[in-house]
Automatic annotation (TrEMBL):
The keyword ATP-binding does not apply. Gene3D superfamilies: 3.30.70.270. PROSITE patterns: GGDEF. The keyword Transmembrane helix applies. Residues 233-365 form the GGDEF domain. Keywords: Membrane, Transmembrane, Transmembrane helix. CDD domains: GGDEF. It comes from the Bacteria. This is GGDEF domain-containing protein. It holds the Pfam family GGDEF. SUPFAM superfamilies: Nucleotide cyclase. The chain crosses the membrane at residues 21-43, 49-70, 91-113, 119-136, 143-164, 170-190.
Length: 381
């Protein structure tokens, strides 16, 4: 049985992002550490205690800064950071967590070795408070959490046991039991986190993607549209419909029809430019959302490529199927773009092309979307 549940890259990125939610407990722990360390230095007058307090305070402040930066970056983007950036965030959290846990270890060990019994009580409170916070808030990263608890508690366990008194040895054994229990809790919380986040991500994929082709559905298209209009000056919508697709289902069965749809999706995915979105919004209805880089004629080029790809034969088990397609295109300035208006305009041109059943190519012209959206299309019959 695996102690640490395996994570997919998407789950890993989500779990690292959870570290940004530890601002309040990190701040509270830093303040507590400074208060206890300062009081211990006032009682004991020990330079190592002062150094441990300063190290813990500096580590806590640095970790708070890291958390604030991570929160800021997450707010700026609707998507989680990539794998490499997530690893860098995790490394930063790891370094600061180890710094703070080392400070807790040093302070608690020195306080247990002190002849002032009131410091023993404070050391116990410091250890339990720190490990309780780590086991609950850092559990999404179990290696960090477990390492921090081991660093914080093992020196104190050894130190209290070596003091020789029965009561101190009992305390050291209790600390050891609580350490093992804390690590077990970390693993349990992590497994649940992985399972819950995996389910959430799966549900998001199902909500935004067509289960047959893996392309975006209507919701995914709408979200991609909102992102695209923020990045591009011009955009184009291509509505695509397969002519004769119903005959494939009627004559060869729905399994063959599904294979055709998957082939169409794969072809579209291969030919669309980077940043474009391919969506399946109906039975044999596809939409391509294109961000135009410089000239509106780019949409004409892509439409011709789509038309060419649809004319290619579809190789299915035991048969070759030939279909034709119709494409309707609407282009618009992104600042004035409305998805529903553009879809209606492209769809209107598509069905005009179906009715006309002739080859045609109408170059598009830019017009503000307050005027009728420009549309153009091409059909194969």
């Amino acid at each position: 049985m695996r102690l640490i549940r395996k994570e997919s890259p998407d789950v890993y990125r989500a779990l690292v992002a959870e570290l940004s939610r530890t601002l309040i407990p990190t701040s509270m722990m830093g303040i507590t550490l400074l208060i206890i360390g300062s009081y211990a230095f006032w009682i004991q007058g020990s330079i190592p205690i002062l150094l441990g307090t300063l190290m813990g305070g500096a580590g806590s402040i640095a970790k708070v800064i890291i958390i604030l930066l991570q929160m800021h970056r997450l707010r700026l983007s609707s998507e989680l950071p990539g794998l490499d950036k997530s690893k860098r965030w995790e490394l930063a959290h790891t370094v600061m967590t180890v710094t703070v846990s080392s400070s807790v270890s040093l302070l608690s060990s020195l306080m247990f070795l002190s002849t002032h019994t009131q410091l023993h009580l404070l050391a116990t409170a410091l250890l339990f408070g720190y490990c309780a916070g780590v086991s609950t808030r850092l559990a999404p990263r179990p290696v960090i959490a477990s390492t921090a608890m081991v660093i914080a508690t093992i020196p104190a366990i050894i130190g209290t046991f070596m003091m020789g008194e029965t009561s101190h040895r009992m305390v050291s054994v209790i600390f050891l039991f609580f350490l093992l229990g804390g690590i077990h809790s970390v693993m349990y919380i992590h497994r649940n986190s992985v399972r819950n986040i995996s389910m959430r991500l799966d549900m998001e994929v199902l909500a935004r993607n067509d289960p047959l082709t893996g392309m975006a559905n209507r919701l995914g298209l709408r979200e991609a549209f909102r992102r695209t209009i923020l990045k591009s000056r011009l955009i184009a919508i291509h509505c695509i419909d397969l002519d004769g697709f119903k005959d494939v289902n009627d004559n060869h069965g729905h399994a063959s029809g599904d294979r055709v749809l998957k082939i169409v999706a794969d072809r579209l995915k291969r030919i669309v430019p980077e940043g474009a979105t391919v969506a399946r919004i109906g039975g044999d209805e596809f939409v391509v959302l294109q961000n135009i880089l410089s000239h509106v004629e780019e949409s004409d080029v892509l439409r011709e490529q789509i038309d060419t790809s649809l004319k290619q034969p579809f190789e299915l088990p035991g048969m070759t199927i030939h279909l034709s397609g119709s494409v309707g295109t609407a282009s618009c300035e992104s600042l004035m773009a409305d998805l529903d208006v553009m879809l209606n305009a492209a769809d209107e041109m598509l069905y005009n092309c179906k009715r006309l059943r002739h080859y045609g190519l109408i170059k598009s012209q830019i017009r503000p979307c307050s005027q009728p959206v420009r549309h153009h299309g091409q059909a194969e019959g």
